[in-house]
Design goal:
Structural class: mainly alpha
Helix content: over 70%
Number of strands: 0
Strand content: under 5%
Oligomer: single chain
Distance between the termini: 27 Å
Amino acid sequence: MELDKTISKLFLANDDSWLKHANPWSVWSRFATLPFVVLSIWSRVWIGWYCLIPISMLVVWLWLNPTLFAKPKNYDNWTAKAVLGERILMKRKEQPIPRSHAKAVIILNTLQCLSGLVLIYGLWSLNLNLTFQGVIYIYLTKMWFLDRMVWLYESSSSTQ
């Protein structure tokens, strides 16, 4: 099983979870978590091993978030389409996606990984500039990825 599917199953176990996560409140509240994760990791300087408490709470939040919100009344907003596009991407073995989308996903995932490395190095070295850049790069590449998922969803739903 591919890494993205493994992570997906961990956080979004079934179709019902995906539909609940399509709620804009779920998407944006989860999206807003990264600065809190960064602050929690950085807090090791001030509170030592106690930093594991907020880190653990945030991991639980990220895991529970998709199940906490109701399914949206409709799925015609940007965030819902992004989530449903991701679901299409996760099922690409059963229903192949267009090659142009697959290529873009590989590029964007690579950029997200590189952004993550910048962030991790910034946090490890306590370099505020690199940490800030890593967060910005992650957010930019994630938004670009989500926008691509909207495109994938719209192109998939127009062919059905």
